[in-house]
């Protein structure tokens, strides 16, 4: 990692003297100094106390990141260019290296220590003569996580938060684990950033070893052990990764305020907050929960923005192999640019926009992108045209949506009518050595083994880790139970939470159940087999069927009721399309694979084939729970 630190504290002119930068070292409560850059419009910022925009990052405080893109028709700005925009708008800007990263002292431990460091940084900034006492936190991804971590410390002086694509409501429920299963993007993230670590920068041999790691090969050699993992050359990273994986219950580890905002919302400041996310981002659940909780608990306004993008890619019209049209980007639709969108919101949040100023116009509480509505053809870039529109509301789920129950049948149908059969079920064999491959979804930092976004589940190819020739549709596998409505006779709008309540049994003492919700486009000239577009997916590990704190193994053959929750989504299913639900027991490498033995996945060496059953009869009516516009009345005119 590049080092920018210098012993000189003198301000450095940038942009021909229109911007000034100086390095400051901010003391933490344990004596560690964290490096930060202060950007101001003059070499003497103390002459003009102003609000401070604070961004804390583990990626290098002067590094350019793709998620900082401002407009779809412009290159990604450098940090000093972004700072110049905000200093011109009468803010001071501070970008800080997180502990153990960049020029900051100490040891980097992902997530867990960011709360106290953030709180200490804010306290220090408030005491500086160039700060007017107000600190606004901003940033994407990890820089959003650290905001929630600081807020959970009950910090004074945090005047507003702009959380983009991050901020844990519960790392156990989304972002680190889901339904008890471990999200393996934690592995690919650690590998990527180990390569850019200070340790690798100081040791060329180590850096080369890390660059040469065969990630795909290691994913086929689980479980990993200390000294026998893709991070074996960097023990500090290996230790925290394996510790994350081993911590499979909801205990003290996952109750750390830095990754458990849900337990500490009472400590969050009563300050304006904006929560931005996207339907193919791994933090959908946290983004929406943070918004809904703070909207309910605080008097200051909270705002929600949900686009159709992948993680931080608000200037792109597509996610995976699906395009949503020019109306999908933030820039040109919600504001001329991401910079202007943020500046307008900061000004409103701090009461700086004057009367009569268009910037003072109230922002809608909720802005969300409803996917769907286009012709389903292939565009010039080879992506399916799905389309969509922006909508506004005052709450989430939207006021027009109501919960509805859709029932599953052993004949593969999804209907509005409860089942009447006295006995009906589907059984399949789940072999952990042959898991269902991941094809898109809410993923970030998954390369080279997985990529986020919307993909056609009918058409796996060589890009898909674990897919095998002849690349048949995923639901052709015998371990995938695929259910669908009849072709819809009218458009159906789904917007809100998604879950499946299943009645299940297994021959194993533990196993997983997964769900995928899909919009199935009918065949056309470009897609003669149709296009099964993934919207959202979820998983549950059955040993947590009663409690995430105290796992309890299954009794083989006994029937249990479980709920598999998937992140919220918003989609228009056009007339002629089908709503489809795929049920299975694996989604790899997005999630670690249950061995079916009852042993924790982080150390189990043996696997067993499980016969898993889903019941769909009058006494055990497995069903899908969704929010539909207009509710249950005539919601699915095309189903029996």
From TrEMBL:
The keyword 4Fe-4S does not apply. Residues 343-625 form the Xaa-Pro dipeptidyl-peptidase C-terminal domain. Pfam families: Peptidase_S15, PepX_C. Keywords: Hydrolase. Residues 49-82 are annotated as: Disordered. It comes from the Bacteria. SUPFAM superfamilies: alpha/beta-Hydrolases, Galactose-binding domain-like. GO terms for molecular function: dipeptidyl-peptidase activity. This is CocE/NonD family hydrolase. It comes from Streptomyces bathyalis. The lineage of its organism: Bacteria, Bacillati, Actinomycetota, Actinomycetes, Kitasatosporales.
């Amino acid at each position: 990692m590049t080092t920018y630190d210098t012993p000189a504290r003198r301000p450095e002119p940038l942009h021909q003297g229109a911007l000034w930068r100086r390095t400051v070292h901010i003391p933490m409560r344990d004596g560690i100094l964290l490096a930060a850059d202060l950007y101001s419009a003059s070499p003497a910022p103390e002459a003009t106390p102003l609000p401070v925009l604070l961004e804390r990052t583990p990626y290098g405080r002067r590094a350019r990141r793709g998620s900082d893109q401002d407009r779809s028709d412009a290159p990604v700005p450098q940090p000093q260019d972004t700072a110049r925009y905000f200093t011109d708008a009468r803010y001071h800007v501070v970008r800080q290296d997180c502990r153990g990263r960049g020029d900051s002292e100490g040891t980097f431990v992902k997530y867990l220590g960011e709360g106290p460091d953030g709180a200490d940084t804010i306290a220090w900034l408030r005491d500086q003569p160039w700060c007017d006492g107000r600190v606004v936190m901003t940033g994407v991804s990890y820089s959003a996580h650290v905001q929630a971590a600081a807020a959970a410390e009950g910090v004074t002086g945090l005047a507003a938060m702009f959380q983009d694509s991050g901020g844990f409501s519960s790392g156990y429920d989304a972002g680190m684990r889901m339904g008890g299963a471990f999200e393996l993007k934690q592995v690919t993230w650690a590998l990527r950033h180990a390569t850019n670590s200070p340790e690798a920068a100081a040791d060329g041999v180590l850096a080369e070893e890390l660059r040469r790691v065969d990630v795909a090969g290691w994913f086929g050699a689980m479980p990993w052990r200390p000294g026998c993992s893709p991070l074996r050359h960097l023990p500090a990273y290996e230790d925290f990764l394996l510790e994350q994986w081993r911590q499979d219950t909801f205990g003290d580890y996952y109750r750390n305020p830095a990754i458990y905002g849900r337990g500490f919302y009472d400590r969050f400041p009563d300050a304006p907050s904006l929560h931005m996310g996207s339907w193919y981002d791994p933090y959908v659940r946290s983004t929406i929960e943070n918004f809904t909780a703070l909207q309910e608990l605080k008097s200051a306004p909270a705002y929600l923005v949900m686009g159709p993008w992948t993680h931080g890619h608000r200037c792109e019209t597509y996610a995976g192999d699906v395009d949503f049209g020019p109306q999908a980007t933030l820039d040109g639709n919600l504001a001329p640019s991401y910079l202007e969108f943020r500046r307008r919101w900061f000004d409103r949040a701090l009461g700086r926009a004057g009367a009569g100023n268009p910037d003072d116009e109230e922002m809608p509480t909720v802005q969300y992108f409803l996917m769907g509505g286009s012709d389903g053809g292939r565009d010039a870039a080879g992506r399916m045209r799905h389309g969509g529109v922006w909508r506004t509301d005052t709450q989430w789920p939207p006021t027009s949506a109501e919960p509805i129950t859709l029932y599953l049948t052993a004949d593969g149908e999804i209907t509005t009518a409860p089942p009447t059969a006295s006995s009906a079920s589907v059984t399949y064999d789940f072999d952990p050595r042959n898991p269902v491959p991941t094809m898109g979804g809410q993923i970030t930092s998954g390369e080279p083994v997985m990529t986020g976004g919307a993909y056609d589940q009918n058409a796996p190819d060589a890009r898909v880790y674990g897919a095998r020739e002849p690349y048949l549709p995923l639901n052709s596998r015998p371990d995938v139970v695929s259910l669908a409505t009849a072709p819809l006779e009218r458009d159906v709008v789904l917007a809100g939470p998604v879950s499946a309540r299943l009645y299940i049994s297994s021959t194993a003492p533990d196993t997983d159940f997964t769900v995928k919700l899909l919009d199935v486009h009918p065949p056309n000239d470009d897609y003669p087999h149709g296009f099964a577009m993934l919207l959202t997916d979820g998983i549950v590990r059955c040993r947590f069927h009663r409690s995430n704190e105290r796992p309890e193994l299954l009794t083989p053959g006994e029937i249990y009721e479980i709920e598999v929750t998937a992140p919220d989504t918003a989609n228009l299913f056009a007339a002629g399309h089908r709503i489809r639900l795929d049920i299975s027991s694996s989604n790899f490498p997005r999630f670690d694979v249950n061995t079916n033995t009852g042993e924790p996945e982080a150390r189990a060496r043996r696997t067993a084939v499980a016969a898993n059953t889903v019941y769909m009869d009058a006494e055990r009516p497995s069903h899908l729970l969704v929010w539909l516009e207009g509710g249950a009345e005539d919601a699915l005119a095309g189903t029996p």
